[in-house]
Fold these 2 entries.
Entry 1:
Amino acid sequence: MERRFKTLTACFVLAAAAQLCRAQTPSVIEHIRILLWSETDAYPGLADAQDVSAGVYDYPEKRLKMLAPFLINGMVHGWNFTYTPSDTLRAVEEYFDFSDILPFGSAENDITYTQPWIEDGKISSWVEFTRTQQMLRDYDLWASINHPVISGKGYGKIADGFDGITNGAKEALKEAVRSYYRTKIKNKPKEITGKVLIRNQPLIGIDAGRYMVQLDFFLETDRIIPYTQY
């Protein structure tokens, strides 16, 4: 079996693979191995659902090939974030944004998808990526320096497709950042900027008709900008 979804159709009919896959365990350090899934059918309102020329497994394959690089880059290079807490007295609305620290680039081609199986309307697959020596040194720095560990949970609309998962990840990161700094900063700052690295197996599920994304991070604070005057 080739490894990058070239023989997915044949692989899906091998029911025995499901038992093999469930018996294996995630890994997040040198050889990243995480379990991801995608619905077999696109949400009715999505453009992908209107593509009648698509093959049976084109939609879940496309979704997994979008989701895997997004999360693995968060595990390998990490994300920048900018956070402004809401402040009613100053009429300041909450603001949060995040972005890749580095683009994943051609490293995306080294992601492999192994032993997929179908169950309950979803296609699941082990997604694997081996860090380069430089990536491994970067991870060791994150893990060895006294970086706080934070975690959060976020939600996104299933109707938004892939964006629903990225929105859930954004909300999970915002919740993790907000919860951490609330215990560390007495007065609300004007802005907080920093970096995070996903440190554990990302968890994605469906809860009350929404995507649920749960993430753990190493945290590095870049700067905290206070208000200079009231």
Entry 2:
Amino acid sequence: MSTSVQQSAPQSEAGDNRQVAGAVIASCMGWALDLFDLFVLLYVAPVVGRLFFPSEHAMLSLAAVYASFAVTLLMRPLGSAWFGSYADRKGRKGAMIVAVVGVGFSTAAFGLLPTVAQVGLLAPVLFIVLRLVQGVFVGGVVASTHTIGTESVAPRYRGAVSGLVGGGGAGIGALLASLVYMAMSHIFPGEQFDVWGWRCMFFTGIISSVLGLFIFNRLEESPLWKKVAAEKAARAQQARHDVLAGTVQSPLRTLFSGEYRSVLLVNLLLTIGGGSGYYLTSGYLPTFLKVVNQAPSDVAANILMACSASVVVVSIIVGHLSTFIGRKRAFLAVGVLQIFGLPALYSAMQTAQTPMALGVYAVLLAGLGCASFAPILIFLNERFPTSIRATGTGLSWNIGFAIGGMMPTFVSLVAATPADLPSTLGIFAGAISALFVLGALIIPETVGRLEHTTPAQTKA
């Protein structure tokens, strides 16, 4: 019997290791595939602006494209409410599969849309409607991918996984979009890109759906969720009685109760700041390089790939650092650096004389822009108990990033000409970073609270 026990222990440990690795990979790649689908639009924004939102004023056309991007973000809280509630009640895996496949297919559908030249005003209407549908699925991806990875790893790795999934996944998604953009630019050079290149970029959304099914189909639920599910099953008879009596609350109702409503509101100070910082840096870089620097497609693609790599590396480092110095201190340090660093880097990019200098400044900008939200994922997870974590994390993240996603639209409207973009971006980024620092001053420290059942008290 002792031999049997000795043999089963390593097998169990290996199984646990496979489950943890699978959960982390699934979380990271789920978010990466989601961001890949969103970044496809950012890479073809100037073309989409001409074909679906034509205007004599180039900045208005560009603002319309970013507004359509923001529409998707506005629908994300609704997706988080639906899919997050399902993930908390039924499991993370099922919600993740449906959401990622939905994002991929809705992205591919953009490649089939007729343009203004073909159907008139119906074209932008169809474009916006499809963006709304896509936004619901995107919100669902966040609710599921942003919980299962951190719930599965040991406490000492949770900060690093937070950076890997939140920032690293975004960097990988942007890197994939850069590779696709480079390939399509070579296959469809010049004017051909305006005819078929942008459509084929959207068609690659099918690939993300297939990869999503392949990655998530064998995924196991997180240990923390399994534990909560087992406890619920043990209390099944009492739960049925409570449902009849009307005393069991859904995850959504619990989240908006007095205890957690204030937690959600304070979280938004950080997620708005982190989301804005990301979309004003990595999100706006493709347009900045084209409109301000007028970089050739191959130069822009190489710079964007380097930026994506820096996002992955910086996110993991800052996320892991937050485990040792605390989430609060990490947020404060990054926020202060962003207040002064982001405006300076925008200005340096505008005056860069060589592709190498431009690339260095862009890499620094992308890395600093993502650093603020690298520990946000684990911070949000630690703010909510397992029973409502997917819903709470999903809504906190998506509401904040929806508001942050509007910033590029406002920047494009405020900037009168492309030459005004660097200074306008610097002002917006500095103001948003100040808001982020304010949130970091208010929040409590949350390290080590993932297994707790009550929220940490907010401290001024």
